[in-house]
Design goal:
The chain is an alpha/beta fold and 365 residues long. The chain contains 13 helices and 13 strands.
Length: 365
């Protein structure tokens, strides 16, 4: 097969990581992999693994981007791929508008993946127009079918996102060198009950709820400390979060680490991880699965796909959305009594995701 994947850019993120994983899976299986994007820091890794990258910015939300429809159609006719796979709304519109005017007998098969719970409107409806539609979780599938009734359920397949357990091995401990450097850089975190809170610093991730959690939790666990991992692209919400922390005199309980590449180590030194998304639902929740794979318990709101992943791997960690008192009590119980056993991950696996995606391509053909 020759497969073209199209996305806005190859920077950091779940969509980008999934694209690279499928691209490598294609190459490893002897197929041809092409990725179209505006470029980014992951292009080198993509090409090193054997895929070809074509630089084309189809992700800009502008009417001018529609001028790319005809050139992209000509490019597809020259490339003659078997599959064209889109993962984001604006590129999906360009690809679909180009694809629908091609000869049905020779054009590639059109596949879409729904990675997020987008706003419900005509713009988002494009993600249901694939001949085959992949939903990254049962939660994403329900969202798609509930909100876009024109989508045929028969063409929607759930292929869970996955991780490589060897990258997040159960019981992993960081090296002494890493530990010495981390605590030298962050002495305020040493000998504390550590809570890991990963994710981009945006309102819907629950950082303001986190402030309330710590305000209550410090009464029971005075040595609690939070490692906030992630950044705020615009900076304005981070200012609001820090103001809320200062208003409650909680600054000593928080360390903001920014974007990190050593999540395995951060999960391993943490006593518990929190997931507090309560508005826009997570379509998958990769950090939950990664952390549980290491063996660190996760407590999270039973909302979106986080409820789905916790339900499979660690049901004890689910808490009703916005029930902060219950969440605090659960953390205290963990500290005093330990936690239930984390189940073996047999569903949210990278190898399974790749195999099921390639099988879907082959079935489309």
């Amino acid at each position: 097969m020759k497969v073209v994947q199209v996305l806005p850019a190859l920077e950091l993120g779940g969509v980008e990581r999934g694209t690279l994983e499928i691209a490598k899976g294609l190459v490893d299986a002897g197929h041809e992999s092409v990725v179209v994007s505006a470029g980014g820091r992951l292009v080198t890794e993509l090409e090193r693994a054997g895929s070809r990258h074509h630089h084309w910015d189809l992700g800009k939300k502008s009417l001018l981007t529609l001028l790319q429809v005809r050139p992209f159609r000509r490019w597809l006719e020259q490339e003659r791929p078997d599959i064209v796979h889109v993962r984001s709304r604006m590129p999906a519109w360009i690809v679909w508008l180009a694809w629908r005017r091609m000869d049905p007998a020779t054009r590639p098969h059109f596949v879409t993946t729904l990675h997020g719970m987008h706003s419900v409107n005509r713009y988002s409806a494009i993600m249901g127009k694939g001949e085959r539609v992949i939903a990254v979780s049962e939660t994403a599938k329900r969202y798609l079918l509930d909100n876009f009734p024109d989508v045929d359920p028969a063409k929607v397949t759930v292929i869970h996102r996955g991780i490589d357990p060897e990258e997040f091995p159960r019981g992993y401990r960081p090296t002494d060198t890493w530990l010495e450097q981390f605590y030298a850089d962050n002495p305020q975190a040493r000998d504390k009950y550590l809570i890991c809170f990963p994710g981009r610093i945006t309102r819907w991730k629950g950082h303001l709820d986190l402030v309330e959690v710590i305000d209550q939790l410090k009464v029971h666990l005075p040595n609690v400390h939070v490692l906030v991992v992630g950044s705020d692209p615009k900076g304005s919400f981070l200012t609001e979060v820090k103001a809320a922390i200062d208003a409650r005199s909680l600054s000593e309980y928080f360390t903001f680490l920014g974007t990190r590449s050593d999540m395995k180590e951060l999960y391993a030194i943490s006593d518990v991880m929190l997931s507090l998304t309560s508005t826009t639902a997570e379509a998958f929740g990769r950090t939950v699965v990664e952390c549980l794979s290491i063996g660190t318990p996760v407590v999270g709101y039973a909302h979106g796909a986080v409820s789905e992943t916790l339900g499979e791997l660690f049901p004890f960690g689910r808490v009703n959305t916005l029930d902060i008192e219950k969440l605090v009590q659960k953390i205290v119980d963990f500290k005093r009594n330990g936690s239930d056993e984390i189940q073996e991950n047999t569903i949210f696996l990278k190898g399974r995701m790749i195999a099921e995606t390639l099988a879907l391509y082959e079935k489309a053909l």
